Structures are given as C-alpha cells and as structure tokens.
C-alpha cells in the first residue's frame, strides 16, 4: 500500500491507471512453474532425439535415395568391409570400373577393371566372389 501511495503522488492519474493495467500481466509471467519447465525440457529432448534418429536413418538407408547414393555418372556398385574402418568399394565412373580401398588414412585406387563386372540388383553378398573371379581372369591373361 505504501508503494501504491508513493506512486500515486509521483504519477499523474492517467499514467497510474496504465501502470495498474500492466502490473497483473507482469506478475503472471513471474509465475512460471516447474511443470511448465519440465514440459519444455521434455519437448526439447524429444526434438533432439527425433533429429538424431532422422540423421541415423539417412546415413543407414540413404544409399538408395537419388542424389545420395550416386545415381549419376558415378556410382558405388558394391562395398565390402575388410576391417573395423577399412572398406573395398567397386565404383563405376562412366564406362570404367575402379576398385578403391577406403581407410582412415585415405582412398587409394587398387585396380582398374578392364572388363566391367555386371552386378544384378541385390547381389551385394557375392561381391567378393565376383571380384576374385575378375582378378583371376586378369591374372590368367
């Protein structure tokens, strides 16, 4: 009450009415409780989990999506893991096929195939056999 009386002496009547109209709104903002903070925190956590799940799905299954798996003049035909972080890739660039070794140290061209290997869709499991056969044919010639 003392505060209100002091303000009434300092402020003209019209400004006092405006100050009273604004005051309840300012007090309502101060009343943010633990329940609202918990709700905001859970919502933020769910959004972060959703972003992480979408990133994982894109990395895991993105090879079949146009633009991500190389559906243009350069394509990865097959991949074979040969270690924890090492892979062999059969890559087609135009009409030429390359065998690439990929490791944390870099990427190296291991072999350029003279005859392209024809892989039917879904034959990723037989990549090692077809590669060995193609390299054996090369060694016999």
Name the features.
141 residues; alpha+beta; 4-stranded antiparallel beta sheet
SSE inventory with pairings:
Elements: H1 2-10, H2 13-30, H3 34-61, E1 74-81, E2 87-93, E3 96-103, E4 106-113, H4 127-140
Antiparallel strand pairs: 1-2, 2-3, 3-4
Instruction: Give the DSSP E fraction (strand runs of 2 or more residues).
Output: 15-25%
Placed side by side, the strands forming the largest sheet appear as 1-2-3-4
Average pLDDT level: 75
Low-confidence stretches: none
Tell me about the biggest sheet?
4 strands, antiparallel
SSE string? HHHEEEEH
Shape descriptor: rod-shaped
Q: Rg, please?
A: 34 Å
Head-to-tail CA distance between termini = 104 Å
- Count of extended strands: 4
Structural class: alpha+beta
Tally of individual helices: 4
Helix content: 40-55%
Protein architecture, described:
The protein has 141 residues and is α+β, with helices and mostly antiparallel strands. It is built from four helices and four strands, in the order H-H-H-E-E-E-E-H. The protein has a four-stranded antiparallel sheet, with helices on one face. The mean pLDDT is 75.
Summarize the structure.
With about 140 residues, the chain is of the alpha+beta class. The protein has helices at about 1-10, 15-30, 35-60, 125-140; strands at about 75-80, 85-95, 95-105, 105-115.
């Amino acid at each position: 009450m003392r505060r209100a009386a002091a303000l009434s002496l300092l402020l003209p009547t019209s400004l006092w009415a405006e100050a009273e109209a604004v005051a309840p709104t300012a007090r309502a903002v101060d009343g943010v409780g633990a329940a609202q903070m918990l709700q905001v925190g859970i919502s933020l956590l769910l959004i972060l989990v959703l972003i992480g799940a979408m990133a994982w799905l894109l990395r895991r299954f993105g090879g079949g999506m146009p633009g991500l798996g190389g559906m243009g003049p350069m394509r990865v035909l097959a991949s074979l893991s040969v270690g924890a972080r090492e892979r062999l890739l059969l890559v087609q660039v135009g009409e030429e096929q390359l065998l690439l070794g990929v490791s944390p140290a870099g990427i190296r061209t291991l072999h350029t195939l003279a005859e392209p290997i024809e892989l039917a869709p879904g034959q990723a499991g037989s990549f090692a056999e077809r590669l060995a056969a193609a390299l054996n044919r090369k060694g016999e010639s």
